[in-house]
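Recall from the previous lesson that a structure prediction takes nothing but the amino acid sequence as input. Here we apply that procedure to Protein-lysine N-methyltransferase SMYD4 from Vulpes vulpes. The sequence below is the only information supplied.
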Amino acid sequence: MDLPVDEWKSYVFQKWSLLPKSIQDTISTADALRDIFLHSSSLLQPEDEMFLNNLSRGYFVGKDPNAPPFYREEGNKKFQKKDYVGATVLYSKGISHSRPHTVDISLCYANRSAALFYLDQYEMCLKDITRAQMHGYPERLQPKVMLRKTECLVTLGRLQEAGQTIRDLESNFAAKPTLAAAQFQILQRNLCRLKRKVQEKGNLTETYTATLTKTFEDMDLREENEQISSASSSVSLCIDPLKGRYLIATKDILPGELLVKEDAFVSVLNPGEMPPGLHHGLENKWDTRVTNGDLYCHRCLKHTLATVPCDGCSYAKYCSNECMQQAWDLYHQIECSLGGLLLTLGIFCHIALRSTLLARFEDASKVIRKLCSEISNKDMCSPESENLVQILNYDLGEEGERHGKTVKIPVPGCDINGKYENNYNAVFNLLAHTENHSPEYKFLCALSVSALCRQLEAADSKKPETAAPPALYSELNIWGVAMLKHMLQLQCNAQAITTIQETALSGSKENNVSNSRQIRLATGIFPVVSLLNHSCSPNTSVSFISTVATIRASQQIGKGQEILHCYGPHYSRMGVADRQQKLRSQYFFDCGCPACQKEKHRAVARPRWEAFCCNQCGALLQVNLSSPFYFPLGQEASHPAQRQAPNRCATQGSLVARN
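The prediction returns the following tokens.
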């Protein structure tokens, strides 16, 4: 999921093992990302690309014209069983495979509007009716959706629009009486019923709002930090030779206080377990399972049952036309034809590509100079500004000499004014830990990025010159180095975006019983959140609303104390040895937080063993081993009397672990 599929990983690792040792040593000992990328890229052979392309074809993301009727029929079966959620998802799958302005897409939109109506999603139902009509919904079926539209408008209290829709419907049938007598009578009865509903509600003053009530009253930062975007004024950015960059409290912080509210610089939806699209047998040709991609917008991660698909592929889906257009303008026009390849290469590679695509919309000249500096590993390509030189030499992390005066080098990722913002400059300066990754892993990332660059180059050759985005195709080697850096950064800096997903035991709206579970929705980069160091017993908690991460104090934090976040291994869920091993293998450091120090000390002080301890005085219970009531620890008592083991204290004891 994060990394390429197993078949590609195995293929690359085998290719690595067969390389001459001299080439392995060259890549293993290379200090510059440029050398790793260029050496690996030179080793990518046509047969390697062919193998990868064959794997990518297994993840079909094109539009299959035979799929919409299948999904519409399957959706109808769910609809008849009153599983309206299941029907909605299947209709959405049919929509995603349909070409614009076809009967297929109009029918799927109309059917989905019916399911949404029974789910009481009236606003979404109205939008789907409009979409069905916009894509050429057959005129003979128009009365059905017009009646549904009127029902929605009446329910929402939009009575003038409802009345106008009824008048339009009546005038249309007066001009074109195409219905059979029985159908016309049914239509007339429904129109009369709706007219009565409009009259009944005419004297009521109902107001409806499209805005959602905020979950927390202080969802916005009370006072934003002047030094760090998306952060509270209660924190400050510091740098240390050992700790690196970190945040401290500038004043006493109370539990629950909002410290960071940051939108992801980039995020990619987790596709879930997507089965390869090449199946044997017609019954398995199209997948009917529900995935994250069917329920969440691929740009803003908003939950929605009424997705709007990309016009060019069947994979990317959005919550609205606005999100679809924004995604297309920012990155999807490049990604659209690469969908199967990106699913094969994994989320990290996808994020690396999307990060560089987003970088094009910042100061392109600065971005190119940064990348040139990374590639040359010496000087910048065209150093025109002393300020820019200073920015690009942040990696020194110490004071430097300039014009005979000592100047302090700013914190990496900050702009020339010392402000740390959620932008590409901050992302670019996240640590890649190149020296810590294994040679095989670096080769896997470099070869994957090289293959992606080859595909980008091939796609560019098929497009007219006017279609090429600025500063991308002409400098693919430069962007390839950038993507390799981002891919290596992600092992330590990727943030899992989670959400609580409720699954109803039945798709019917009448069923109020549901299961709730936390799921990993997407992976993103949050430059400000990445500033927080780890603790196995942190003083903050993180939560997500769509693409926005919020960091709150989970306990009182004193002025001058460091703001700490848990990277995953928490002391309440994992022993110190397992935590240390996980942090060392993934994040390349040995944790020295108070929780780890305490557990290490206790482990050294005495061996681990278990005993019963008195709840009142804390003393160990004295058990008579010859008593018939004695039983070994871990063995369940077979008689109620055995639950009160004989001891010298009158109070009840409990089992405790001693380290």
